[in-house]
Amino acid sequence: SIMAHVRAIGRGLRDAASSWTGALRQLDVKFDNLVTLLRNYSAIPEVPTIHDSATVKGNAMRLSLRHYIVSARSQRFVSAASALDQFFGAPLMNDQLLQRMIRTLESSASSVEGHLRKNVLAPSRSLVWDSLELKGLAGAMDSISCHGVQLMDPTA
């Protein structure tokens, strides 16, 4: 029973991770397009490749956005301003589509949360319960052998 709970927790975690990746795929595609656009405009100081981690891409994009916000259209960051204007001015980046994407992301996140509650939290609670029962049983068996007192008559 304990191993069944451990297997269920592992399976639930794997399924939740793939669900989470699927939920964020739409957002990842948008940000990958932005990173590609910034790279094409040579607006990213550290040029991340497609195979770089999300952290490297995120840091490079965060730096470009910060430069864009702080200095807007100054001569120093004109390429970043042009790239970001092109990206956020695209037909697929209007308010209704962004709001729909946010609603989709929120519903996907709540779906992953429900999956985690059902397939990870419930087996974890059962695992703890079963472990505590085994601990109590082991403690009872230990007290019998230590004190030499039998709790039950073996002939009964």
Helix-strand layout with pairing:
Elements (H helix, E strand, L loop, with lengths): L1 H39 L13 H18 L6 H11 L6 H53 L9
| Number of helical stretches of at least 4 residues | 4
Poorly predicted sequence stretches spanning 5 or more consecutive residues = none
Quaternary arrangement of the chains shown?
A: single chain
Rg from C-alpha positions? 28 Å
Q: Determine the strand fraction and express it as a percent band.
A: under 5%
Shape: elongated
Structural class: mainly alpha
N-end to C-end Cα span:
29 Å
Kindly state the percentage of residues in helix.
over 70%
What is the string of SSEs from the N terminus onward? HHHH
Main sheet properties: none
Number of strands: 0
Overall mean pLDDT stands at 78
What would your notes on this structure say?
The model has no long low-confidence stretch (mean pLDDT 78). This protein has helices at residues 2-40, 54-71, 78-88, 95-147. It is mainly α. It has 4 helices and no strands. Helix 1 (2-40) crosses helix 2 (54-71), helix 1 crosses helix 3 (78-88) and helix 1 packs antiparallel against helix 4. 78% of the residues lie in helices and 0% in strands. The protein is elongated, with a radius of gyration of 28 Å.
